[in-house]
Write a structure and sequence with these properties.
- By secondary structure, this protein is an alpha+beta fold.
- It folds into 3 domains: about 100 residues, Beta-Lactamase; about 170 residues, Beta-Lactamase (2-Layer Sandwich); about 60 residues, no CATH class.
- The protein contains 11 helices and 14 strands.
- The strands form 3 sheets. A 6-stranded antiparallel β-sheet has the order 8-7-6-11-10-9. Strands 2-1-5-4-3 form a 5-stranded antiparallel β-sheet, sandwiched between helices.
- Strand 10 and strand 11 form a beta hairpin.
- The protein is rod-shaped, with a radius of gyration of 46 Å.
- The N terminus and C terminus are likely disordered.
- This is GAF domain-containing protein.
- Pfam families: GAF_2.
Length: about 400
Amino acid sequence: MTAVSDDQRALFGQSTAVFASLTGPSHVVESANPAYAATFGAEQSPAALAADLDAAFRTGEARTARDIRIVLGAGPLEREAFFDFTYEPRLDPDGVVTGIHLIGVETTQVKHAQRLMAEHRVLLEQIARQAPLAEVLDGMARKIEDLAPQEVLVSVLLADPDGLHLRHGAAPSLPDFYNEAIDGIATGDGVGSCGTAAHRREPVIVTDITTDPFWADFKDLAGRAGLAACWSTPILARDGSLLGTFAMYHHTPRVPQDSDLALAQIFAGTAALAIERHHIEQAKTVAEAHAASARDELTKAVLAEQKLRAEAEERAAAAAELAAQMRTAAAAQATAPHPERCQLGGKAGCPETAEIKLADSWGDAAWGCPAHVEEVIINVRSVFIASEELGGLATYLNR
């Protein structure tokens, strides 16, 4: 069998049969097995069964009843219990009903377990629907607290990615000051129940916080919160990495039963499913964001490359046009009187042959070689290729 099946079997527990032979219309206990005496007492039948017993006694017909609620014990020991009963009339030789054989099986643990498993299925459906992690964990904690046979306060802490600290996940019934105080608690041996369980990767059961050395640094905090026992189970991923802890607190010192441990194991596994699904969705969101960012950057790069290409093409076209204009000007000005050498070389001078005449908007003019003429035209906006027909300013204004 798998571990989960074992845990489920532990939740349902072992049912104990009770038997009593009742006599007379008052249903006085004539004989009973020890389980009946321990549960209901040795003298009288439970008042909750009076109507069914009366009917069986009056009609002489066998009857059955399911999920009969009976309150057992008193004061702090009072508890709600459920039973399935069979009522078998006892007949004398003349066929007259003289009493009832009462057989009962307690179904309390089964009923609670069935309700818990139904809620467990609801949680699994929430996880499958990708409900928010906080909603799933808070709902899980509240359901366990509502359905557990004895009072319990549930807490879920989430591990940091490095596994060195635990953060608040859900704890609807613990005081706010307590949740704030343990938010970010370190994992380590002897760091309360949860820090130790996270460090050891195994359940840690503290039945009395006031005397346990694991709680030496947190005993006063637990006292202010009214906490006396804490059982913590690590929440582990499928690869064994730490996801968090699942804790069950109690207001009085308490030793867990097998059903308590099974409950913790089942819901720690459920929390693991929810947390792993959350991590997967987070990673998916981050990956999608990175992919979208990469697509945006690629689009920007393509647009920038297209812009650069267009600008390069424009520059190439302009350069070609300028080169053509310079060739035309050089041919047209070849017969005009002009200095032998380029006048645009600055202080260093230029030994190249002067071929093209330039002018500016103020009417100044100079002759230069093709290289210097091109450089000046590109870098000085007011300069242009002169012509013999127009003066400097007129040519600038009418070009």
